[in-house]
Amino acid sequence: MGNENDDAGKAGKDRRSPPLPPQAVNTVGRVLKASYDQMLREPIPDKFMQLLEDLERSQQSNERSTGSEQDTDRKRDEPDPAAKGEE
Amino acid sequence: MPGSSDLKSRLIEAMPNLRAFAISLCGNADRADDLVQETLVKAWHKLDSFEEGTNLKAWLFTILRNTYFSQYRKGRRELPDTDGEYSARLSVQPQQQSHVDLQDMSTALNELPDDQREALILVAAEGFSYEQAAEISKCAVGTIKSRVSRARVRLAELLQLEPGEDFASDRYGSAVLVAGDPVTRG
Description:
The complex is a heterodimer.
Chain A: H1 2-14, H2 22-40, H3 46-64
Chain B: H1 4-26, H2 29-45, H3 56-72, H4 83-92, H5 102-111, H6 114-125, H7 130-137, H8 141-158, H9 174-178
Helix pairs in contact in B: 1-2, 1-3, 2-3, 3-7, 4-5, 6-7, 6-8, 7-8
C-alpha cells in the first residue's frame, strides 16, 4: 500500500520538472522576448559614448607619441614611419 | 588590424545588447552600467585577441559574463534592493500593442539561479544557438539545454502559467500572449 505511494513520491521529487505544455513555453518565451526587446530600445547612455571617445582619443595619442601623453605638439617625438633605420 | 573608428561603430552597435544582458544578469541598472563600462574598456584593450570574422557580439558577451561572474555576482545581494526601479521606469513608456508586465518578468528573472538566467537570456532573448551559448558560458551544450529548460519551467511557475491555464490573463494583456494562441473551449 505505502510502497507504491513512496515510489511515486520519490520519482516525483527526483524529476520535479513536469513537461511544460508548448503553450506555456511559448508564453514564457514571448513575455521574456518582449521585455528584453523593450530594454534593447532604450537609448544608449551618454556616458558609454563618452567612454568610447575617451578610449579612442587615448589610443590615438598613444599611437602618436608613445611615452609622452601631454605634449602632442612635440613633433620630434613622433615615430616617423619612414625612419626604419633601426632594422 | 581593424581601425579604431570601425571598432567603435561596431561596439556602439552591440551596446544595447550588452546593456540588456548586463541588466538581466545584475538585476540592477546602476551596477549593470558599471559592468558594461568595464566590459567596453576590457574589450578595447584586448582587441588583439578578437579573431576577425568571428562573432563580435559573442566575444563581447563572453567578456561581460566573465567579468560578472568573477567580480559582480558576489555583491548581488549585498546591495540595497533597487531591482524594481529600472523596469518601473520602462513600463511607464506606453507600448501600443505589447502591454507586458515587465515588473513581473523582472522579478521572476531575479528569482532564477545565475546560471539559469544567463542561459535563458542568451538562448531565448538574444537568440544565440545552444552551441554559441555553451561557448560563451564555457560549459557543455547539454548543460545549457538543461539550464534553459529548467529556467523556462521555473519562470512559468513564477509567472503562474499553470498547464491548462487560459493565457488571456489580464496581467499580461492580450496582445502579446494571445495572438496566435486562440483558446477554444467546448
